Amino acid sequence: MFQETPIYSRLVEERGDVPQAVRGEAERIQRDLGRLIALSPHPPLGGQHYRPQATH
Question: What would the pLDDT profile of 37-48 be if each residue is shown by its tens digit?
C-alpha cells in the first residue's frame, strides 16, 4: 500500500498498529453480522414501508 517509513515504525512501536487493529475489528464485525443475517428468521424489510397504526 505504501512504503513504511522510520516515523511510521516508531508510531507503531509507541501506539500499536492502529490501521491493522481497525481492519481486524472490521473483519470481526463483518463475520458477526454475516452470522446474524444468516440466522435471521425473517426476510429483509426491503421495500416495506412503515405504516403507523391509527390511534383513536
Answer: 888 776 656 655
